[in-house]
Design brief:
Helix content is 67%, strand content 4%. The protein is mainly alpha-helical. It has a domain of 55 residues. It has a two-stranded antiparallel sheet.
């Protein structure tokens, strides 16, 4: 294994300099940054799952699953649920607002 030191113009990732780091050190730094990113993404997924679980008993919860998981349009959902497009949009908006209050309560409070 050949270890190279970078010379000349230094590259940066995430604000840290790669100048004078071996290739292995660079790879380890990138791995650590990716690990941190993955942990953040897992936390976001947990928050979304928690929020969805909190609203799952809503009469119109199915609108969320149809729209975001099944990729159905307002028109398709309205037809399937025998509702108007306007009603589907209204309930989708209401449920998304409820989710945002559950998932991001601190951010909501900061707006006031």
């Amino acid at each position: 294994v050949i270890l190279k030191k970078s010379v000349g113009i230094a590259g940066t990732i995430g604000g840290s300099s790669f100048e004078h780091k071996s290739e292995i050190e660079k790879i380890e730094e990138i791995k650590e940054q990716n690990k941190i990113l993955l942990e953040k993404l897992y936390r976001v997924i947990e928050l979304i799952e928690f929020g969805l679980n909190e609203i799952k008993n809503d009469k119109y919860y199915e609108i969320i699953t149809m729209m975001y998981f099944d990729k159905m349009t307002y028109e398709q959902i309205a037809e399937k649920l025998n509702l108007s497009d306007k009603t589907v949009k209204r309930h989708r908006n209401r449920l998304v607002n409820e989710l945002s209050l559950i998932i991001f309560p601190d951010e909501i409070l900061e707006k006031f």
